[in-house]
Structures are given as structure tokens and as C-alpha cells.
Write a structure and sequence with these properties.
Keywords (chains A, B): ATP-binding, Ligase, Nucleotide-binding
Shape of chain A: flat
Oligomer: homodimer
Organism (chains A, B): Stutzerimonas chloritidismutans
Strand order of the largest sheet of chain A: 9-8-11-10-12-13-14
CATH class of the largest domain in chain A: Alpha Beta
CATH architecture of the largest domain in chain A: 3-Layer(aba) Sandwich
Protein name (chains A, B): Acetate--CoA ligase family protein
CATH topology of the largest domain in chain A: Rossmann fold
Number of helices of chain A: 25
Number of strands of chain A: 30
Largest interface: A-B, 71 and 71 residues
Number of domains of chain A: 4
Pfam family, one (chains A, B): ATP-grasp_5
GO molecular function (chains A, B): ligase activity
CATH superfamily of the largest domain in chain A: NAD(P)-binding Rossmann-like Domain
Largest sheet of chain A: 7 strands, mixed
Structural class of chain A: alpha/beta
């Protein structure tokens, strides 16, 4: 529903503009006390010079903090773009109705006492949404700390942290599901000199979601990088839409998604569901887009800062010049930990550099030693060679305090600037310690600066991951011909038949009723075969000698049929015999494949090695469905145990093509099966040696009933 | 040798005092230019007011930088405590001889051109050491950036970073194998307001080692925390001695040991050696002492800072109060990641707090919401309850910018100070954002302050690990009755016999020469048994039907003996038959145990699950030998696959007592076997169900020859 509303203009998230960039704002519950919740927004806007019209609403005052106030919303001289609602919960609904009648386009609600307290609060919140829909208004909150847009002097927030200082100019936006944490990010950003002019705290998200907030920030021409804090994604469509818009605009989203530790507690929907941590599903979704997920605010801001340079190197690799061998080792360690390649310099260039400076170690990291501080032309030559000969997409120079020592700094900065300007497409990072004024020339020249080289490596790796993500096309929206799943529980045989229509091979097996059939079928599927007496009345077949393993050749199959039927008749005289089940006897590497329907993101595929690997080590990889064979192959090879599939320690490599085809087909099946499909477990799948295929030995499909699915 | 020298006084590392806290210093190669290598130390000392006598040596000047100079070392008016040597490499030896003759007690050598350039440099360096030993002088370097001790105004360093600012007062020492990186740490510490008054850069370590430098810092009463940067430990005795002294003095060592990524490249000495990353061995050594190893300088300084409070909570647990639910989730995630427990508050206390403040969420983290900012008495009550009722060893309060807002800060700080003073043994950490002056009152009150709550969690966890390490007694030095290993290659049978003397059980097996013997032996070891034709001339026994599996009962064993001998005679007529090997047929969980002799730290034990676990997943744990059964059990249970041993997914739990006993006995064997023992591999070891023991199925012992061992 909301989507069509957003698509009215060319911008998808345009309907938030009245909220985030208002030309006029009413403050309902305006306070004369600049430290109260209804007073802070006015105080902040007065101090920062709001560019639009500010209209306090207060029934008892003619003026509030020196500007004319209005007794009631009805008395407002114009329909405000937005309203800040700071009245007790019980008065909020009437306020929204009045604002709607007045023609307000949006409102944000500080008040708490809604869905977060449960019970009546939930109903009260629903009533707000109803009212807003009727009046075609957008709502933020309730229970939100609000928003600010410093580029327009707009402060619709009561965050007390602003008392300490307003946001610095810059191009980083903040969207947060926690107001206190959003303000914390602002504080951290200020402390390290980063500008975050726009923040949205979404509160209870009765209408406007985190996804929409991210989307609006992405579409804002004043914002290059969006940072976000999420506890749970409540509306997946707007969230995914925001990720898509960000990808197209080449604007990265740096996301702190929390709640990893509580995820195991969620009730399991099925065997697969119990294995799939929701958090890993979330990571699988993000992997399709240009999103970097971080675990700490410091890391989030480091990466956001580096991203403000807007250089996202594709196929990233790191070359380093350093005055300290130790820093070189630290960076090598960190790069290996994070998977950022640091290939060596070409041998010819190494020889040439070694000639220029015999003390140097010109492999990569290129240690040109503190000697270059006495001959900065040499520093330029080495760095130019690193870029031109080494061809690294990213360059890190370690200078620490030497780079800001007054006797060296100005010339060093100039020398490096020349190198940088010749290669504007490279990400050029310097590890530097200095006061604000000391590092300012480097900042102005467009270098990315970090004190700690380890943090530099983390940020450089993130820029490369963004580059790769931007270079990869987004998954095309696909429509699927729906298939009809049977009603009721689905038997193993039925599950295998359903899947075989998608090309997913099970271990070949058939129940035959005479020796001739047995012989012909065995010849068809290939030897050796397993033969079992087929009877629903004999649960423990091996106890009556009803199972023959490793049956080779036509004669043995014929004999086997007669033997099994005879044993059945003799040893289980009351059982109804259906014949003999003949199956190809397969031994291969045990794998595990499955589908879990995520309540938010739809079907997600999981792959792992079978047995103890899946049960004890949880060595699993996830991907949102559908994906093609190449995607499946990537997924398969991403597990830790992948060497076992590739032929570790003298084993034969398995048929990864067949596994990948099967997994990709399973992902398509999951999409076509629709919302009734809850889970699929193929466990084990036997992967045979290359060229011999992969076969599911068991298949379990779980569905909801038609009525349940319709409700959900 | 060195140890006896150090033990002259009560302090083990006393012989470094003349170097690090000199009463008089000669600067040989003193320069009038304060930016040159021979000029910087003088310039720094003049600016900072060196407390001792400063004596420049310069043959061409009567004065250097305004103070009287001497033409030659011989002309010095007194024997200097130490000398700074800043002359070309070729002149260093003569300088050391002259200093020795003059009676100097120590010297540090800036000059490079020694062992780091190889060839003649190595010999030149050895000559320096000879000279110093003759004169009973201690030497630092050569190729060192030097030392400083700001507490005495002593600056024996040419680090250019000091131009930007001298170290702040404080109680953190720096010992570094890289001068540039030591200076980098100083710069980072200054930038975040941390005082690091003493630094030692060890350079080539021709005499004084990193270990001795750490040891001296630990023994210095002005230092509470030692930070260290290491590339490789060259002298293990002084290093371990320093760790021991630190443990006894309850002073933590925060260590950045680099070079993780290059370790795989080192040539393997044996199968086990190839699996044992030296880096993991190093970690295993550190685990015995109170050392925290970090991967980045930022983390190192965060932890060092927290340690300056000298509160090391044993059995650490974390209680949190927060004004932001989001920060609570972030901290819960981080604590779970790092293994820091956050148990819930007692239910009665939760109920009481909920009554005090209905909006609060008083479980743990205790979210008392931003409401408490209006009622700070409530903040105190909640925090007091967290400490008293919850009993957490560490407390984290999240206030972010709200904690430094002028309208709140002074009262909040006072309130928390009162709570803190009532519980001086708790580690009290506040997540706070503010300028230097804003946070100063909290610093003065002794709180540990972090901007980012994630960094706070890392530091709190480290304090707990230190507390546990200090509370644990150091491993007692043990002497071992040496055992004689046979000369030459050790056969599998011989290896098993050697180990069986230590109670390490192999799979029972014996070569028998008649059917009666076979029957008696099988009865002794228990059925089923495996029988194999015993002949060195039949390498592929199964090809001639020479292996019988799963032999049950006396008759079958007798028959088996005759069958195998007959087949041997018939199918391998030229082979010499030794009889038949009878072995107990064992199936259990496959494990892997081994010993690797580390060139520095001696024998190290390794444990893992067998097969693919050790080969592909490298799921291994290490520990320095020897250790007792409890230590072995800890080691065994520390692997990721431990659930497989404990009975995961319905399997029978294995006999961990037997495994632990075997591993502990192996560690004692390794110590008694002495330096000739290179490695032991028991692969596989079969662990049977509880009560049934563990048996090595194969044993390989590798040794060096007697002559080699004597050389090493």
C-alpha cells in the first residue's frame, strides 16, 4: 500500500520530506522551559536558526521562548508541513485529528505510553494510524526522540546531547531505532570531527519505518553515507526498497544490527529453522546489497568516515609504504585476518627500489624506513612505484607522528598530494597522529586518515566490499509461476516426487513385484544396489534378514528377490508384502540442504556438510532464494568444510556442479511453492565424485495449511 | 649466565637501572643540531630538565647546545651511569671499549649497520657484546631508537615524535622491539590522555632483551601496567622471568605480538609441527601468566587504561545500568561474543525496581531509561541494587552525552561517586562522551571511562581475565628425572613400549606363533579381535586375504590362525612368516594427541579430534608441558568439537577421564624425554565410552641424534 504512495514523485521516499525538511512546523505542547521535552526543540531551533516558520502551540501562553504561540492547533495561521507532538499520551489522538483537519502533512510524536507498554497502548497507537491514514498524514513514532536536519536548522528532537554541541557540517546521515543510541552516535561523530547533519529516530514505527528513513536519507542530495542502528526490521519491503535505492545511488549503508545474542532463544519452526539463526539470515540478505554491518559504534564511524571519500575500489588489494617494519607486520596480520589481499611488488620494481634505498624492504609492505624523512622525494618515488608498478587499488602509508612533526609535515603532505592527484581513483589512506590543525592539510587534500593502522585496514577492506557490491548488478525482481502444494502432511515419497519435477534427484529406488522387474530396474539404476523387503507391517526389516546390502549383478538381484520374499513369508507370516524395494547403493560425502521460510525475508536456503558438521559445528551457509547455479556454487564453497568437497587429503573431489544445480533448483522450488512452504530438509544429500551427480537420500517438506497461509 | 648477574640485588632486573634511570649520561657523537640523531637527546633533556649530569662528547666543540662538551670519552670527568652512542657503526666498538675502560655501567647504541644487515655486521655486533662482557657493561641495541624515562627527565632517544609533545604523567610503561612503533604508541597514548613516562626500544637485542625490559618496568615502583610490542621472543628465559615477576607483583602485561600471518610459512619439523602454528604455542604459554594479548594498538591502550585502576575482578561478571535499551543490547551482544557473563538480577530485586520505576526493564542490562536524568536519586538506588543484590564484580553504566550535559553532570558524578566509594572493590565503568574538562571529575573519582560501550566490554573482560590469572598460582618449576631415548629411528613398537611405561595404553596387540597362543591372548584382551598375517615381506596383507576382522570366540581365533598361516604359505610362498598379529578390535571416537618441541618454549602438547577435524578444520588446542589431569581435561574440552566427546546428539559420552590421564602423562613423558624429543604423534587415539578407556592405535616418536641435541 505504502509503496504506491511513495511512487507519486520520482523519489520513492519523498513523502518523508515534510517531516525531515519542513518549511513550517507546529510544536504542540510547546514549553517555555528550554530543558523540557516540549521546550528543547524550540530552544534548539532558535539557537540554530530554523529556516522555516516555527509555530508553538500552547493554550496558556501568548509567547513561548520569545515567539508568538497559538492556543490550539485550529488557530494555526497555516497548515504546517509537520508538527512536533509533545503532549501526554491521552491527548495525542485528538491532536493528530486536529492536525489532520488543519492539513498538516506529517507529525512526530515524542509521547510514550503506546505499543511499547502493551495493552491499551497498542489500541491507542492503532487509532493514531487510522487517523493519520484518513488525513493522508505520515507519522513518526510515537515514543521517538525525533529528528534533526542541521542543513535547514530544523531540530524536531529533545535529545539532551545537543546541549553539548550541535552536529558538525558533513554528509553522513543517521537512522536509528533507538533515539538514545542515535544521539550517542552523534556525540561520537562530533568527538572525532565527523559531520552528521541529519538524524531520524524511528521510535515505535507506527507508520514511518527504519527502511523509509534510510531511503529518504539515501535520496537526499546532501547525504553521501547512511549510518543506521537496527534492533529488528519491522517492514521488510521498505527496508529492501531502501537498500535497492542505495545500491543504485552508489551510497553505502553502514549498519549496526544488534540482538545477535538473543537469537538462539527464538522458538524453532522446524528442524531447519532450529539451525538457521535469524541473524545469519539477515547477513545473507545484506550480502546482496551494498551494506556493511558492524559490531561497534567505533567501527561504524570509522567506516562511514572512509566512505565519505566516495572511492570504492573494485577487486580491492592493498599496497603499503611504511617508516616502521613493525607497523608493516601489524597491517599484514590485520589484512590476512579480514581477507584483504596484499600481493608482492613485481620483482623488477623491488630491485629498482632496493637500488634507490639499500636499507629498504620493497616487497609489500614496502618498508622505506625513517630514512625517507630526510629525503621526501624518495618517499614520493616509492609511493608512485607502489601505485604504478604494484597496481594496488588501495594504498596505506604509515607515518604516525612523523607525518605531523612541524619540520616534516608540510613537505610530506605536498609530496603525497602530488602522487594522489595523479591517481584519483585509488583509495589513499595515511596512518597519522596529530592534532586537528596538524592533520587538517591532509584531510583537505582528500586523504583518509587513521591513527591506528589496524582500523585503517578494517575501513579499507570495507571500501573494497562496497566497491564489489556496487559493481555487481542487483538481483532482478522475478515472478514465479506458482505451484500447488498438496494439502495436509507431505509424505517422503510425495516430497521426492515434487522435487524431482525440479530436477532434484533422489537416490533411485522402486518397489518391484517380481524378480524380473528387480533385475531390469537394478540394471537401469546401476550396481551395487540395496534390496529391502517392502511391507508397512515389518518395521524392523533387518531383524528378519529383510535387507541385502551391496548386491552386485543380475543373478544376485534375482536370487535376492526370491530370498527376501521367502524370508518375509516365513518369518513374518502375518505381514502384507508389497514386494521388494530396489535402490541404488550410494556412498558419497554427506551434505545437508534445506529451505527455511523467514517470516520477514521469505525463503532462505541453507547448505552444509551432513552429520556432525551440521549437528555439532553448525558449519552452515545461507542465501536468500532464488539464486542461480553460480550463486549456489559460491554458497557451497563458503563453508569452512569446503576442502572436504574439493578433495582434501587425497579424497576424490565431489560433483560440485551437481550439488550447485540441485541447490539452485531447490531455491527456485521454494519461490514457486509460495507462502505455504515452511521448510524443506534434504538430509543427507550424497555428493558423489565429479561427474557422478548428487542424490537426496531423504526429503522432508513442511507446509502450513491453506487457511493459515492466507492469514499470515 | 645473565640471570646470576641480575640476581645480585633483590630485584632481578636491577642491572638495567643505570640505563633507564641514570644519574649521569655521556652522549658520544653529540650534535649541535637539535634535529640530528646525536642532537635530539640533548635537546629533549635540556627542554625537559634531566635530573642527572649530562656530558656531551664531541671532539670539535667546547660546547654542545649550550653545555660543556668533552673531546673524548677518556676526558669525561666521571664514569657515566650510561652512554648514548650516536657514532657511525665503524666507530662503535672503540667507543664501547673506551666507555668500558672509563667505568660506564651501560650504553645504548643508536647506530645501525650490525646484525640487521648481516655479514660483517653480525661479527661487529658479536665484538660489541664481547667488549661489554669484559667491562661488565649492559648494552641496549644496536639499531635502537633508545629509551626515555620522563619521571627523571631522561631522554636517551632520537624519536622525532617527541617534537610534537613529551609523554604525559602516568603509570604505563612501554617496551617495544620496534622503535617506530613504540613512538607510535606514545603518540596514541598522548592523544587519548594516557601517561606513558617510560619507554624502552630494544633494537637488535645484542644484550638487553625485551623480556628484561618488561621485567625492569614491572619492578619499577612508578609503573603499574606494562605495554609491550613483540615480533619474536629471542630469549625465552628472561621473557618468562619477566612474566613471573609481573604475576607476583600483580602488574599486568598488555602485549601486542605480531607476525600471525607469516607463521604458516615456517618449515615443518614433523607432522605435528606442521599443525602447530607457532603463534598458537605462544598463546598457550601466555595463558599461564597474567598477560593480555591484543591485535591492535587501540585495544592495547584501552585495556592498559582500564588496568591503571588496578581493580582485577576474580570470577568476573557484568551488571549494566543504561539510559538506552539499544546500548543494553549492544553490550549484551559484545559480552556474549567475548564470554563475559551477564546473569540476571534476582527476581525480588527486579520486582522492587519495577515498583520504583514502572517504565524500567530491571533484568540485566537494567534499563532505567532517560527518566532517571530527572531523578538522580533513582539512578543511585538502581545502581546500588545492581551491585548489592546482583553482586556483579564489574558494573557498566551507559550515559553517553547525557553524563556530561552541564545541567546533569555534576550531580550525576557525585551520586555515582557515593555508590562507588561504598564498593571500592568493584570495577566501575561509565560509557560517557565529553570533552576533557567534562570527563575530568569522573576520571578523578576513579571511574573507568569509555566513549564506546563495546570497547568498555572488551576492557572489562580483560580485567576479569587478569583477575583470574593473578588469583591462580604460577606453575611451580619442576625438575624431571630424565629418561634415555633410544638412539636412531624409533619403531612404532618401541614407541608404544616407551609410552606404556607412562601409562599410555596402546591398542593391545601381539604377534603369536601358534593357534593356542592366539586363543589365550585373544581371551586376555577381549573379543572381537583383528588378526593379520605377520610378515615384513607382505606389505599388502589384505590382497592375499591376510586380514580377518571381527573375529569372535576361541574357535574362530584358532581357525583364523590356521587359515592365515595357510594363505600366507600358499599365496606368498617366498615370504618369511613371523606368525599372526592378534589385536583387540576397537572402535571409538577418533582423537589426535601429540607433542611438538618448540625451539623456544620446549615441549607443547596438542589435542584434537582425529580424521577430518585435525586435517581440514584444524580444530586443535595447545598447552605447554607438563600439566596435570585437570589441565588436560581443560585442554580437551576447549576444542570446538568437544560436544562430540560429551555425547552430542544421542551418542555415548567418551571416557574423558582416560583421555585426560593419557594426555597429562604424555606431557610428563615429553618433559622427561628432554631436548632430543622432537615430536610425538598418537593418531588416532580411540576414545571409548565412559569407563572403557582410551587407546592409541598408532605412535610415532621423532628424535634428533645425540650430537644434534647437544649442539642445539
Amino acid at each position: 500500500m505504502q509503496e504506491s504512495k511513495n511512487q507519486a514523485s520520482g523519489m520513492r521516499f519523498d513523502s518523508l520530506t515534510s517531516l525531515l525538511q519542513p518549511r513550517s512546523v507546529a510544536v504542540v505542547g510547546a514549553s517555555t522551559d528550554p530543558t523540557r521535552i516540549g521546550g528543547r526543540p524550540i530552544s534548539y531551533m532558535l539557537r540554530q536558526g530554523f529556516s522555516g516558520r516555527l509555530m508553538p502551540v500552547n493554550p496558556k501562553r501568548e509567547q513561548v521562548q520569545g515567539i508568538p504561540a497559538f492556543g490550539h492547533v485550529d488557530d494555526l495561521p497555516e497548515a504546517p508541513d509537520t508538527a512536533i507532538v509533545a503532549v501526554p499520551a491521552a491527548q495525542v489522538l485528538a491532536t493528530i485529528e486536529a492536525l489532520g483537519a488543519k492539513g498538516a502533512r506529517s507529525a512526530l510524536i515524542f509521547s510514550s505510553g503506546f505499543s511499547e507498554v502493551g495493552g491499551e497502548g497498542v489500541e491507542l497507537q492503532a487509532a493514531l494510524v487510522d487517523a493519520a491514514r484518513r488525513w493522508n498524514m505520515r507519522l513518526l513514532g510515537p515514543n521517538t526522540a525525533g529528528v534533526f536536519n542541521a542543513n535547514h536548522g530544523y531540530y524536531g528532537t529533545f535529545a539532551s546531547g545537543l546541549e553539548r554541541g550541535f552536529p558538525l557540517p558533513g554528509r553522513i546521515g543517521i537512522a536509528s531505532q533507538s533515539g538514545a543510541y542515535g544521539a550517542h552516535l552523534l556525540g561520537l561523530a562530533r568527538a572525532r570531527g565527523l559531520g552528521t547533519p541529519i538524524m531520524v529516530a524511528t521510535g515505535n514505527e507506527c507508520d514511518i519505518t527504519l527502511g523509509e528513513s534510510i531511503g529518504w536519507l539515501v535520496e537526499n542530495p546532501d547525504i553521501d553515507v547512511v549510518t543506521a542502528y537496527a534492533e529488528s526490521v519491522r517492514d521488510v519491503d521498505s527496508f529492501i526498497a531502501a537498500l535497492e535505492v542505495a545500491h543504485r545511488a552508489r551510497k553505502p549503508i553502514i549498519l549496526q544490527k544488534v540482538g545477535r545474542s538473543s537469537l538462539g532463544q527464538r522458538a524453532a519452526l522446524s528442524h531447519t529453522a532450529a539451525l538457521v539463526g535469524d541473524d545469519k539470515v539477515f547477513d545473507a540478505i545484506l550480502a546482496d546489497y551494498a551494506v556493511i554491518r558492524t559490531n561497534s559504534s567505533a567501527e561504524l564511524l570509522n567506516i562511514a568516515y572512509a566512505a565519505t571519500r566516495r572511492i570504492y575500489p573494485v577487486n580491492n588489494s592493498l599496497g603499503m609504504v611504511t617508516i616502521s617494519g613493525g607497523a608493516g607486520i601489524i597491517v599484514s596480520d590485520a589484512a590476512e585476518d579480514i581477507g584483504l589481499p596484499m600481493p608482492s611488488m613485481p620483482e623488477a620494481s623491488q630491485a629498482r627500489l632496493k637500488e634507490l634505498l639499500p636499507f629498504s624492504s620493497p616487497i609489500n609492505p614496502v618498508d622505506f624506513t625513517a630514512h625517507v624523512l630526510n629525503d621526501l622525494a624518495l618517499a614520493s618515488q616509492f609511493t608512485e612505484s607502489l601505485i604504478t608498478d604494484g597496481g594496488y587499488a588501495s594504498v596505506l602509508a604509515f607515518f604516525s607522528q612523523a607525518g605531523t612533526v612541524p619540520s616534516i609535515a608540510p613537505r610530506l603532505c605536498e609530496a603525497f598530494k602530488t602522487v594522489k592527484q595523479a591517481h584519483p581513483e585509488r583509495l589513499f589512506v595515511i596512518s597519522l597522529i596529530g592534532d586537528e590543525e596538524q592533520v587538517a592539510p591532509y584531510e583537505e587534500a582528500g586523504f583518509v586518515l587513521f591513527e591506528d593502522p589496524t582500523e585503517a585496514v578494517t575501513a579499507i577492506a570495507a571500501m573494497g566490499r562496497l566497491g564489489d557490491a556496487f559493481a555487481r548488478p542487483l538481483p532482478e525482481p522475478q515472478t514465479f509461476e506458482p505451484i500447488e502444494l498438496p494439502n495436509g502432511a507431505i509424505s517422503e515419497a510425495c516430497a521426492k516426487t515434487l522435487l524431482s519435477d525440479f530436477g532434484i534427484a533422489s537416490v533411485p529406488e522402486r518397489v518391484v513385484s517380481d524378480a524380473g522387474q528387480a533385475e531390469r530396474y537394478a540394471a537401469e539404476i546401476g550396481f551395487p544396489v540395496v534390496m529391502k523387503i517392502a511391507s508397512a507391517d515389518i518395521p524392523h526389516k533387518s531383524e528378519i534378514g529383510g535387507v541385502l546390502l551391496n548386491v552386485m549383478g543380475a543373478a544376485a538381484v534375482r536370487d535376492g528377490f526370491e530370498t527376501l520374499m521367502a524370508r518375509g513369508r516365513e518369518r513374518a507370516p502375518d505381514a502384507r508384502l508389497d514386494g521388494v524395494l530396489v535402490a541404488r547403493q550410494i556412498s558419497g560425502v554427506e551434505c545437508f540442504m534445506g529451505i527455511k521460510r523467514d517470516p520477514l525475508f521469505g525463503p532462505v536456503a541453507v547448505f552444509g556438510l551432513g552429520g556432525i558438521f551440521v549437528e555439532v559445528l553448525k558449519d552452515l551457509a545461507f542465501r536468500r532464494c532464488p539464486f542461480d547455479v553460480a550463486g549456489a556454487r559460491e554458497l557451497i564453497l563458503s563453508i569452512k568444510g569446503a576442502p572436504l568437497l574439493l578433495g582434501a587429503r587425497g579424497r576424490a573431489p565431489v560433483d560440485i556442479d551437481a550439488l550447485a544445480k540441485m541447490l539452485s533448483e531447490l531455491s527456485v522450488f521454494a519461490c514457486r511453492a509460495g507462502v505455504r512452504l515452511q521448510s524443506v530438509d534434504l538430509n543427507p544429500v550424497f555428493a558423489l565424485p565429479t561427474g557422478q551427480g548428487a542424490f537426496a537420500a531423504d526429503a522432508v517438506i513442511e507446509t502450513t495449511e491453506v487457511a493459515d497461509a492466507a492469514r499470515s
